Amino acid sequence: MELGKVHLNLKTVLLTMMMFKWGIFCTASSDKCLSAPCHNGATCVDNMDDYACLCAKDGVRFMGKNCDELYDACSFAPCEDCSSTPGETEYHCICPDGLAGDNCTEEVDECESNPCSEPRSLCVDQLNGYFCRCPPGSEDRTAGHT
Ligand SMILES: *[C@@H]1O[C@H](CO)[C@@H](O)[C@H](O)[C@H]1NC(C)=O
């Protein structure tokens, strides 16, 4: 009988431990969202030991752990010089000379307007500018002509 008693005790201890563990788990997970930490219409999602806020996607937008900061589109923009309206998702990159495009990743082709004329008719595009040169096989005969 001595053996059976020990076995029972062990079972009780295990069960108590499990109940204690489940108890902690349930309390911790539901408490995180019960305090309503998410603002501005955000949805709260429970995690094991934390919560996450899914910020509302309509109207004025918010960001941050609790969706309580006005959305700053420029903080996600890939360009350095940026402007945006707080609470809106659009941003506008202010590109340095010679670069263009939404994210200033496109190089401006300064030769597109055909700025070169004879005899230096060949336009060579550069990062922020261009130069005109004579086509291969011809000589620059303007030197000393003007
Ligand atoms: C600009 O960058 C954003 C964010 O990195 C990206 O989602 C978007 O596709 C880019 N736009 C262009 C035109 O490259």
Average pLDDT for all residues = 84
Bound molecules: 2-acetamido-2-deoxy-beta-D-glucopyranose
Question: What is the helical fraction, as a range of percent?
Answer: 10-25%
* Low-confidence segments: 24-29
Strand content: 15-25%
The strands making up the biggest β-sheet line up spatially as 1-2
Order of helices and strands: HEEEEEEEEEE
* Overall 3D form: elongated
Distance between the termini: 121 Å
Tell me the total number of β-strands: 10
CA radius of gyration:
34 Å
Judged by helices, strands and strand pairing, the structural class is alpha+beta
Number of domains: 3
According to CATH, the homologous superfamily of the largest domain is Laminin
What is the CATH architecture descriptor of the largest domain? Ribbon
Give a short account of the largest sheet.
2 strands, antiparallel
Description:
This protein is α+β, with helices and mostly antiparallel strands. It folds into 3 domains: 2-69, Laminin, CATH 2.10.25; 72-108, Laminin; 110-140, no CATH class. Helices cover 23% and strands 22% of the residues. The strands form 5 sheets. It has a two-stranded antiparallel sheet with strand order 1-2. The N and C termini lie far apart (121 Å). The structure holds 2-acetamido-2-deoxy-beta-D-glucopyranose (NAG). The site of 2-acetamido-2-deoxy-beta-D-glucopyranose has 5 residues, from loops.
